[in-house]
Amino acid sequence: MKYLVTSHKDTKEKEKIQKKGLYCYDLRGCDDGVGIATIEENVLVNRVGSIITNERIEFQENDFIDYDFFEKVNENVGTVKELLSSKNQNRSRKLDNNMYVMDLGYRNKQPVALVEKTTEYGKEYIIAFNYEITDNKIQWGYGYYYGIDIKKAQNDFKNVLSGGNLSDTFEDNTNITKINEITITIEDIEENLCDLDTEYREALAIGLTELNYISDTPLKLKYGTEKQQAELEKVWKKPLKAKQLNEIIKYIANKMKGDFQYGQFRQIASEYIDIAKAMKINEDKQKRKSIER
């Protein structure tokens, strides 16, 4: 394990570190005021700093790790960049929920993961954007789904790390295999809006009602009859078509224009609009294939 001793990090700073795939803990000072005594999840008294690691520390029965022992058996580095570099040298990782991270990287500042998911039907491969790994579980803002086509997923992942746009793979090019499936649900959109004020999720809920996706507000359906709850569940998890994704995102954009967080929302909206364009190209090609048959 590699580690970096640094100044104390508060909760928000720790969350940012964790989003990079690293881990952060507190350091307790020795009683005599000289040196570091222990590594702990959180220290309130006699706190002398924090420690960032490229692997999770298992505290097991104790709530702390002796720092002197830890220092002897692990490698100290000078920068977070070195920790990230060492992390990327061993980027594969088995997670809960039958997920396996095959590779990690960034497109510009956007975290991207190549994920293998085991289902009852076999394995499928996903390129996941804006992913987060918490408590050995991975979540992402949106993903491109490749079914069993691992070679296509790996090639596109390399393209992404070079700054490429996956929607480009839908263009007319005989040398490019089309992505099998892009799946975006209303549930995905709602989760991606969680970092913004609740008004954005409220705009989503209002839009779904006004655009006739649901028969009543999500709140009333949630606490309604079994039939109403089933309706909400079905709509929330059903993959959206390109036109549906486009109109939902544009509805929220029109509703929230001028809000102080609108700039942050525009980044999310731009990603979804790009996905909708790629989906439209794919849908049109599927239609043409169907007609040709």
Characterization of this structure:
Residues 170-180 have low confidence and may be disordered. 25% of the residues are buried. The protein has a 6-stranded mixed beta sheet with strand order 5-3-2-4-1-6. The longest helix has 31 residues, at 262-292. α6 (198-210) crosses α9 (242-256) and α9 (242-256) runs antiparallel to α10. The protein has 293 residues and is an alpha+beta fold. The protein has 10 helices and 14 strands.
C-alpha-based Rg, rounded: 23 Å
The class by helix and strand makeup works out as alpha+beta
What form results from the Cα inertia axes? globular
Q: Main sheet?
A: 6 strands, mixed
Q: Please estimate the helix content.
A: 40-55%
Major beta sheet, strand line-up: 5-3-2-4-1-6
User: Which H/E pattern describes the elements?
Assistant: EHEEEEHEHEEEEEEEHEHHHHHH
| Alpha-carbon distance between the two ends | 57 Å
Quick gist of this model?
The protein is 41% helix and 24% strand. By secondary structure, the chain is α+β, with helices and mostly antiparallel strands.
